Amino acid sequence: MDKGKLLIESLPYIKKFKGKTFVVKFGGSMFQNEILKDLFIKDVALLSLVGINVVLVHGGGKDINYYLKKMNMEEKFIDGYRVTDDPSMDIVEMVLSGKVNKDICSRIVNEGIKAIGISGRDNGLIIGDRMNGPYGNVGEIKIVNTKVIEDLLDMDYIPVVSPVAEDESGNALNINGDTAASNIASALNAEKLILVTDVDGLYKDYKDKDSLISYIDSKLLKKLVDEEKLSGAIKPKAMSAVEAVEDGVKNVHIINGNEAHSIILEVFLENGFGTMVGRNENE
To answer: What is the pTM of this model?
Structure first.
């Protein structure tokens, strides 16, 4: 009976979101847990099967760290961004666009869903400039050319995007995965941007697990970012959420991928699972 009630509760949301576009970004420790990774892929397959257009943007930080260590190369982060010199840029692109991207595509195809892996460098999908500051080849996005994604969606493929871009001279840039997903969602006028991470969402006080924020409007979240009340790896996620909502994405969800089926529970049930960011308090 409980399972039946859950299915009935999800029906209005399945109807509501059929034909809509969701951009989903995932990474973190899920990459290291084969069970969670497979469950996540099944959730993505379910979204596709009920008629939602899914665009998947992935990270791969732990895999990058592993190969940097094998090459005796330093890993360094500032403000949540990976400092990327020329040699480490080669590793970043190799791991993201090669190893990680193809593994994800293979897993989706094994669920009977069509998927194609692309890089932000393919067909000029993402064009950017180097970010000002001590970040090396970390890029800021200038243009997202969505035609290749739209063409794949029209053919019922799930585009799987690695967040590597290039500048106007063709030089590779390392793009924060949340930033890439936010910009792609905005360019596609997506219904939802879903950031799957290692934490349950945003907290009023990270030391108090009962202070999870289930809903916050973009103006208040921007204020928290501007006042430096959010820091570390969560800061780029919060900034990405604000930018996406301000650019027309209806809602952004920040959820914990370490909980099985969190994406399904967040999207299809009345009481969500993580933090939802909207345009105003009444939305």
So the answer is: 0.91
Domain covering 17-278 in this structure, CATH number: 3.40.1160.10
pLDDT given for residue 1 in this prediction:
60
Q: What amino acid occupies position 51?
A: G
Dihedral (Cα; 244, 226, 132, 74), 10-degree rounding: -90
Bridge-based pairing of strands 77-78 and 158-162 is unpaired
Residue 122: what residue type?
A: D
CA distances, 203 to each of 21, 234, 254, 272, 276 (Å): 27, 11, 11, 15, 12
Angstrom distance (rounded) from CA 148 to CA 163: 15
**Running along the chain, 283 residues long, what does each successive block of 10 average in pLDDT?**
78 94 86 86 96 96 92 87 93 95 96 97 96 94 96 97 96 94 96 91 76 88 80 75 92 90 87 83 50
| Tokens coding 122 | 């393919």
What letter does residue 136 receive in the DSSP assignment? B
How many alpha carbons fall within 13 Å on the CB side of residue 2? 0
Tell me how far apart the alpha carbons of residues 87 and 89 are, in angstroms, rounded to a whole number. 5
What angle (nearest 5°) sits at the alpha carbon of residue 220, between those of residues 217 and 226? Answer: 135
**Pair 128, 141: CB distance under 8 Å:** yes
3-state secondary structure of 108: helix
CA distance 78 to 133: 10
Q: Burial level of 134, CB count in 10 A (0-12/13-18/19+)?
A: exposed
Task: Give the integer Cα–Cα distance in Å for 193 and 206.
Answer: 23
Give the Cα separation of 137 and 129 in Å (integer): 9
Starting at the edge strand found earlier in the chain, the sheet holding 139-144 runs: 139-144, 126-130, 164-166, 172-174
pLDDT confidence of residue 152:
97
Domain ranges of the chain: 17-278
